[in-house]
Amino acid sequence: MYGQEKGGSGERFKTGIGGLDTMLYGGIPVDNQVILAGGPGSGKTLMSFEICYNSAKAGIPAVFLALEEEPNTVIKNAKSAFPDFKDIDDLIAKKLLYIDGEGSSNKLQQESDSSKYIFGNMVADIEGILSDYNAKCLVIDSISLIKLMLGDELSYRRSMISLVSNLRRLNVTSFLTVEMPSAERKDLKFTPEFYIFDGIITMYQTGQEDKRTLAIEVVKMRGTNHSWVLSPYEIESNGFKVFTIEE
After folding, report:
1. Domain residue spans in the chain?
2. Pairwise pLDDT comparison (122 vs 117), residue with the higher score
3. C-alpha distances out from residue 1 to 52, 67, 141, 181, 238, Å
4. Beta strands in 75-152 (DSSP E)
5. d(CA 186, CA 71)
6. pLDDT tens digit string along 28-55?
7. What pTM did the predictor assign?
8. How confident is the model at residue 184 (pLDDT cuts 50, 70, 90)?
9. Which pLDDT value is given to residue 129?
10. 31-204, which class in CATH?
11. Which residue in 157, 70, 24, 169 sits closest to 13, CA to CA?
12. Which residue from 2, 3, 62, 174 could staple onto 16, CB 3.0 to 4.6 Å apart?
């Protein structure tokens, strides 16, 4: 069962991803703001898309904001990775799934002396989209671009505090992807602003190119107990499959 439900620790947002909700002991506490971090090729964009897709399938409107790709490219890649998701266009037509981000991305890349002003406009746009669609699930892919455009660490940290505060006020469960410099778990490092967020889920890939192993870990999640086990996963035609010992 996907969507939101009551659990032992309060209301939960279920990602609908096999094994991941088990690792989260029933799902993510509603209104948590979660970092989904991974190196190149780990599948974080596809996983965040599937979370939006599963939310829309459950009747909970979801917004996917792509800051680094055109919406059509996001849809094309998702259909290619998940050929069993045959109702993507239908969910978009029914306004249960909204995929965009070009406007926000263009704002971030404007030349201006006030990056704070531009970021504020982008946040206002996000609030407007969430309100228009009555969305309770949001993906921003990725906040690495925001960090690049804002320039310095202090501005980025303040902007993330502002963003998290606004998303909490809007009662939305959000997933913000971020690029890790290394796909190896042994090289995992978090910058201070990560601790602003309620949850951190990391995705790794290890081994040689012809024997690559994918694994996922819930590093922290406020408001719930969760698995501490590093669990392998695969990307299949019908979505992600996480293999966890809790099952």
Report:
1. 31-204
2. 122
3. 14, 30, 25, 35, 15
4. 97-100, 137-141
5. 34
6. 999 999 999 988 888 999 999 999 999 9
7. 0.89
8. low
9. 92
10. alpha beta
11. 24
12. 2
